[in-house]
Every structure is written in structure tokens, then in C-alpha cells.
TrEMBL record, chains A, B:
Its EC number is 1.11.1.-. This is Deferrochelatase. GO terms for cellular component: cell envelope; cytosol. It comes from Paenibacillus elgii. Residues 1-25, 125-147 are annotated as: Disordered.
Length: 443, 443
């Protein structure tokens, strides 16, 4: 392996290797370009070369090679880590999200569940079946088998607990984080109980939908007698290799989605925005993060009748380039003060980007949303498709909530969307080997 | 381009290039291996090389390079062809299936719809947006935009009409094919109207779910005022690159699914099994095929409690290798007469493979199924996941129906599945450039 090649491989093992140019942390981008110019050919050859030996390392797409798949299906994102994976991890192609309700009232059984889940999650994210011993003919197989032979596909499994976990059942009331306050009702909400809440939230993401499904199904199976599914939602974005490497994916309204997100490679920003700091209470959440999930249906048929001007005014960005109105490039800053000849703001006062951007840096969230499409809504006869909005933050009360309050009140996008599901979860810090996820809360 | 390389490229443009080793047509397999040995390195280099110029040609994965993605996202499967694409096309990773009902009673409007659909399908399968002219600010964009910048991803769009198309509304009654008889009721069916029937069936497949969704959505939009969605179902299999190239994908019961399928590269077999022959009536179906769709829910929780022996007896195959019971390799023939020491058949009389295999070669069908996972069934509180079973044949009355009658009666698999949806469609022959899909029926 030549030196440059090795360097990139090592980086990729941190599990944060950018597979797309949402990575704007210019150093690794530039490294890549340099490599593509100089040793790039060797790099490509090596990465697709005589199979197997590179297991667990990233295959890098040279930026010029748009046919190459962007992420190596063999890449493993380590499960045991200071933080849980799946939060500042560059978004995989698919999500299987699930909310569970506990059917036990014994805390000891909840602990056991999280111990089993931790062990299984560590295996499945490494591409191994749960269980492990040889299957016996006279027993149900330990693993359900549909991912046999498939690669890890950057699977991450992220666990959290909802506000209901702290009700009378388990005696955990005193440990409830203040930040996990009930979300207020937002104007326009049309929440349906079948897509709300849950004692436990589990976000499974992977670059392969079958691999993600397999993980969630095996977790569900391990919960038998202790917890049942309350609601689930699958989601997708365009597959890694299906577009030019590094383009921001588009949502189902046809706009690039994720441009204004903070940079996941900026550790300082992630500490400021995402990770609960050690100075905060409760201690068991230190190094964790709060996840807010909103199932947001799009009124696709209405949107599809609106003019391009209207659509661009709605987001305050151009559809084609993703650039802010009045600017040229996707990542140009929002010129919130700029006016047109008539003295009107270039980016309308009701534009989604303007309202979501806010004025306070402390209000930022890290979005990690997926598109969904779930057949036809029986109530309306229209496509049930939209956005499974997910964001992570240190404190929803000062981040998601004020943003969403502004959006609910004034966002022009409200003509085209309706929030039908909602949940939030306190996502634990990571587990160390030998420990288990949730240990800090349950012990 | 060297000679060997060129040869493979040309083959791949037929749109039938095997992306996995379900292709057991040994010639192309051997070609590939030869190439990988000799010119393989150059091949790989070329195929990921200085982007863009090779648009529309296949990137070939060397069989040894299991990290490589199996299909080139830039590959276009030609829309205009003697047969419709998406039938004997090696299965893509995703499906968006939709059944439409016509809201018009004017045949002229139906014709116009199919003309618009043909034009749009030709564009979208080539990776182009519908419409085409520059978007105007004061108009709704012609294309909904969420696939902008994405590759064609081997998109196919396959159209058919259901039995209801021939009722009193359009005066087409006399043209109804006898082969499109109503399906009989099968024992155990638990069909729900929301997953049954439809005047028109559209099967969109692609190696990217967002690309497939985009195509179906734009077709739906083009149908406005003429047809509405009746039901839809998304489905998946493991993504091309997520497992060793060429392995038969597994269904959600963990078994390899597709082993016993006829070889799509065997033209004679496809004529015998799939394509309606010129000698048959009606003439407008010559070169077409009949599609049967069954939405089959799996009782996953029950399955997961059954022993490995039970599971293998259910299919008559080993879970791990996919080989028939008593045999060694996946593609070994089913030894239907073999007995164990106790004199019992090795492959039980109620095994799915045995019953589905049948005794008459003329009964074979070409299966093209996908796994689905659609959240939780409100009626049972369990996962709504299973198989979107799709098969193609010359005549369902003598192919799907007798097989399914045997299965419904005796299949051990019935303990673990329930058919909840059903539809069938007469899928037209292909269209030539300048013509439109369905022309033979409507003109
Ligand atoms: C279906 C619903 C939604 C859609 C389609 C949508 C789409 C978009 C788009 C296209 C952008 C511009 C590109 C970008 O910066 O990513 C954007 C920005 C943003 N959205 Fe949304 N969004 C939705 C809901 C929400 C919700 C519920 C929140 C609540 C917190 C939110 C927060 C944000 C933020 C913080 C930004 C970045 C603003 C900036 O700082 O530039 N979005 N959204
Ligand atoms: C959820 C429902 C079903 C599942 C999970 C399932 C699964 C399987 C599996 C694992 C095999 C063995 C591997 C292979 O040859 O592909 C198989 C074979 C087969 N199945 Fe199914 N199947 C289902 C429903 C059906 C239905 C409704 C039909 C109706 C026509 C059918 C027809 C066949 C045929 C023709 C074969 C090949 C038999 C042979 O000639 O060897 N299957 N199926």
C-alpha cells in the first residue's frame, strides 16, 4: 500500500470518513483531490483489487469517477465508542426507525434487554449475525438470516429513551432530564397517535435497506416478552453511487436538503450543537444527544401545481443549484438583508431557510432526515410520502423548539406539508466494550 | 478501448447484461472470468476512469472484486424494444409498483395518457427529466426534480392493463384476452380490497429507490384528471454491492429466493415461458406477457420461533447454501424421488419447492419478486413485511394458477404467510420509436 493510500485508509477507519461532499472540511477533500491527481489510479485499483483483504477499510471514490460507488459496503462503523454512532456519522442511504413500548414493569428486564441489544448491535454493525454459535437443527436459528453474506454497509444503531420512560412504572422519575420536556403543541400539527411517542427509540441506518431491516427485526425479536413495536418508518435517500459523488441529496420536493447543516467534521461545532456536555445534568446523558423525530407528510399534488418561482420563494433557495436566492453557489451564505429593486427582501420573510436559520447560533440543530414513501393514505387517497425529519441537539427546548415555533407560525412551506408524527428520545452516550448502552441510567 | 473490453461493453448494451451470477448462462460468465484474469485490471481501470465518457455502458465487476458495485448506475436499459423492459431484465434493487384506476370514460383520453406516459418513460429510463425545455419561473416545473443529477440506474417501466379495463366503460370488451380470466379464489386467501386490482398496472424498477419513486410520481402527475392511484407498494432486495457479486438474494425468511427460476438469457425458455407467441390471440398481446402480482405478508414472528429443521423442510432447501435437501450445491436439481433411511422423501411432500416445481415444464413462470416492509399492521400490531410476489408468463390459467392451487392446498409455507393483495395485468409488447405503449389495443 503506498503512503498516501494508507493515510486515507486510516482516516476512513474513524468511521467519519466523508462519503459525500457534504463533507466540506476542506482538508480531507483536498487530500482526496490530490490523491486522485497523483496516486489516484493506484488507489482505485487497490480498492477494487483482489477482493477481501481490505475488509473494513473504505473504498474511496475519486471525485472524478462518478460511476464509483461512494461508500465501501465493507466499511464498519465501530459500535463501541465515546458517543453513539449514527449521529455525527455521514448519512447512510437508508433508515429503519422504530419506537418500542415496554410491556414489562420490571427494571431488571429492561436492563437485560439493553444488555442483549448492545451485544447484538455490536455484532450486527460489524456485519456478523446475532447469536454466533452454529445453528442447531432442533432450535430456531439465533439470527433470522436475511443478511447472511451481506457486508456491514456502514450500519449504525442508535438508542434513546422517550419521556414516558420516566413515568411511574420504573421509578426513574427523578432521573428525567429537564431537556426531555414534553414538546409543546405547534400550530398546524395534525399528529396521529400511530406515529407518535414510544418508551424507546431506535434509529438503524445502513447503506443497504435489507441490512437495516435485518438489524431492526433482530432487535425486535430480542425484545420479545419485554417490549413491542409501537411504530416504525423506513426512509431513503438516493443511493451513494447513483449520482455524482458528493452532491447534496434532494428531498421529494426536488430541493437539495442538508446544505445549511453544520459540518459533522467540526468537533467544536458538534460539541456546541449536538453533544450534551459534562457540565450538564443528568450525568448519565453526558456525551449523549437528544433526538427529535417528526413524520412530515408532503402535499405532493399541491406542490406539483405550484410555480417554480413559488417553490424557490418557499425555501429561499434556487431549485437547480441549491444556492440562496440572489447568490450563485450552493454553499454561499444566506443574504438575509439583501433587497430587490422594489425594496423587498430577496429571501422572503416567510422563506423556510430564513426562518429555520434564525439569528442565534446557539439554536442550530444537526439534521439527519430521510425521505419516505408509504403507499397511499386511506383517508385522502393521496400518496403518503414526505420527510422523516430527524435532528440531534444538546437541548430541544432551546434548539428544535424555538425553530419549529417560528416555522409553525410563518413558514411558507406549511402550505405543502403537515406534521403527522412526533417523538423525542434522550440518546445515551456510547458504551465501552464490556458495558452496555443505557448503563448510566439503569444502574 | 481494448478488444475484449469493447466486446463486453457491447453486450452490456443489450440491456440484459447479467449483474449477478443468477446469470448462469455459462458463456458470458466464462467471458467475464477470462477478462478478469487477463485484461481485468485494465477493465476495472477503464470502467471507473475519467468520468462521463462511458455514459450508458456497463461497469463490470470482476467476479473476484466483491467490493465493487455490481451494476453501473449509468447503465440505460433501452425503453423502445420489441418486448417491454423490466420482464426478462435482471432484477434491479428496488421496485415501485402502482395500480391505477381510470377516472375518465373516454377512450381518447386513455390513448393520450399512454402517449404521454410512453414519451415520459423513454426519457426517464434514459435518465432525463420529463418535459425537457427550460423551466419557466411562472410555471410549475415539468419535472418534479428529485432525480436531478442522478443516473438512470437501469430504470425500467413496464405497463399493463387489468381485467377491469375490458368492462363496459371503453368498449374494449371484445378485445379482452382469454388468458386474462379472473383469477380463481385460492384457499387461505385473505385479500384486502386496498391491495387488489386496478385498471392499469405499472412496474417501475431501478437500482435506486429515489430514482424509481421519481418515475412513478411523474407518471402519476401526468395522469392527473384521467387516472388516480389505486394502490402502490415499494419493495427492495439487498443492494447490488452489499454482498458478494452474484449471490442469489435472500428473502425476509432468510432463504435464497430465485434459484429455481428459468434463465433469463435463454431465449428459447423465455419464448416458452414468458412471451405471448404470435400464434395466440389477441394479436395486440403478441410479444407481451401476463403479470401476476400477489402481496404476501409473512408471519415473521411465527417463523422466527420455528426450528431450523422446520424452516428447511418448509422450502425443501437448506437455509445456508440454498441447496435442495439431500444435495450439496444451490443449483443442484431437486431430487424429488430421493428417500431417507426411514423411507420418507428427503424433500417433504408439502415442501414449497416441490409443490411449486410441479411436473409439467409448461407450468413454469418467471418470478421477479421483491421484499417489502411497510411499518406495522394496525389490525395485528405486527410488522407488515413480506414478499411482493410478481411473476410473468404466457398464460396465467396454465402457469400461475395451477401452481398456486397446489400451493394453496398443501404448501407447508402457508403456516407462515398470508396472501393479502392480488392483481393481474396484460403487459403489452414493447413500443417502437414514434409509437406508444398500448397502441395495438387502443387503435
Ligand atoms: C418536510 C419538511 C421539510 C422540508 C422539505 C425541509 C427542507 C429544507 C430545505 C430544502 C432546506 C434548505 C437546504 C438546507 O439548508 O438544508 C432546509 C433548511 C433547513 N431546515 Fe428544513 N425542511 C423541512 C422541515 C424542517 C423542520 C421541521 C425543521 C425544524 C427544525 C427544519 C430545519 C431546517 C434548518 C435548521 C435548515 C437550515 C437553515 C439554515 O441555517 O440555512 N426543517 N430545509
Ligand atoms: C411469501 C411467499 C413466498 C416465498 C417466501 C417463497 C420462497 C421461495 C423459495 C425460498 C424458493 C426456493 C428457491 C427458488 O427456487 O427460488 C421458492 C421457489 C419457488 N417458488 Fe416460491 N415463495 C413464495 C411464494 C410463491 C408463490 C405464490 C408462487 C406461485 C407461483 C411461488 C412459486 C415458486 C416457484 C415456481 C419456485 C421454483 C420451484 C422450482 O422449480 O424449483 N412461490 N420460493
Amino acid at each position: 500500500m503506498d503512503e498516501a493510500n494508507k493515510q486515507v485508509t486510516e482516516k476512513s477507519q474513524e468511521g467519519e470518513k466523508p462519503r459525500d461532499v457534504q463533507d466540506r472540511s476542506s482538508i480531507s477533500r483536498r487530500d482526496l483531490l490530490k490523491l486522485a491527481g497523483a496516486g489516484g489510479v493506484g488507489l482505485l485499483l487497490g480498492s477494487v483489487g483482489v477482493g477481501g483483504v481490505w475488509a473494513g477499510t473504505a473504498k474511496l471514490a475519486a471525485p472524478t469517477a462518478s460511476t464509483a460507488s461512494n461508500a465501501d459496503p465493507k466499511q464498519v462503523i465501530p459500535f463501541y465508542d465515546a458517543h453513539q454512532a449514527g449521529i455525527v456519522t455521514s448519512a447512510q442511504d437508508f433508515i429503519c426507525f422504530a419506537a418500542f413500548d415496554l410491556t414489562t414493569v420490571k427494571l431488571s428486564e429492561v436492563k437485560d434487554l439493553f444488555r442483549r441489544w448492545t451485544e447484538a448491535a455490536a455484532k450486527m454493525t460489524a456485519g456478523q449475525p446475532v447469536g454466533g454459535e452454529e445453528d442447531q437443527q432442533s432450535m430456531p436459528p439465533a439470527d433470522t438470516g436475511e443478511a447472511a453474506g451481506l457486508h456491514p454497509c456502514r450500519t449504525t444503531i442508535t438508542f434513546g429513551v422517550g419521556p414516558s420512560m420516566f413515568d411511574a412504572r420504573f421509578g426513574l422519575g427523578a432521573k428525567r432530564p429537564e431537556a426531555l420536556a414534553d414538546l409543546p403543541r405547534f400550530g398546524g400539527d395534525s399528529l396521529r397517535p400511530e406515529w407518535c411517542g414510544g418508551d424507546i427509540g431506535v434509529q438503524v441506518c445502513a447503506d443497504d435497506l435489507q441490512v437495516a431491516f435485518h438489524a431492526l427485526r433482530n432487535l425486535t425479536r430480542l425484545a420479545r416478552g419485554v417490549a413491542v413495536l409501537r411504530w416504525t418508518q423506513e426512509g431513503f435517500q438516493r443511493t451513494g453511487g447513483s449520482g455524482p459523488a458528493g452532491e447534496t441529496p434532494r428531498n421529494l420536493l426536488g430541493f437539495k436538503d442538508g446544505t445549511g447543516n453544520p459540518d459533522i467534521h467540526d468537533k467544536q461545532a458538534m460539541n456546541d450543537i449536538v453533544w450534551v456536555q459534562p457540565s450538564k445534568q443528568p450525568a448519565w446523558m453526558s456525551g449523549g444527544s437528544y433526538m427529535v423525530v417528526r413524520r412530515i407528510r408532503m402535499r405532493i399534488e399541491v406542490w406539483d401545481r405550484s410555480t417554480l418561482s413559488d417553490q424557490e420563494a418557499t425555501f429561499g433557495r434556487y431549485r437547480s443549484s441549491g444556492a440562496p436566492l440572489g447568490a450563485k453557489n450552493e454553499f454561499d451564505p444566506l443574504a438575509l438583508d439583501a433587497k430587490n429593486e422594489a425594496g423587498q427582501p430577496l429571501i422572503p420573510l416567510t422563506a423556510h431557510s430564513r426562518l429555520a436559520h434564525g439569528e442565534q447560533p446557539a439554536e442550530k440543530v444537526l439534521r439527519r432526515s430521510y425521505s419516505y414513501s408509504s403507499g397511499i393514505d386511506r383517508q385522502t387517497g393521496q400518496l403518503d410520502a414526505g420527510l422523516l425529519f430527524i435532528c440531534y441537539q444538546r437541548d430541544p427546548r432551546t434548539q428544535f423548539v424555538p425553530i419549529q415555533q417560528r416555522l409553525a407560525k410563518r413558514d411558507k412551506l406549511n402550505e405543502y406539508i403537515v406534521h403527522v408524527g412526533s417523538a423525542q428520545f434522550a440518546c445515551f452516550p456510547g458504551a465501552r466494550q464490556g458495558g452496555y448502552i443505557g448503563e448510566g441510567l439503569f444502574e
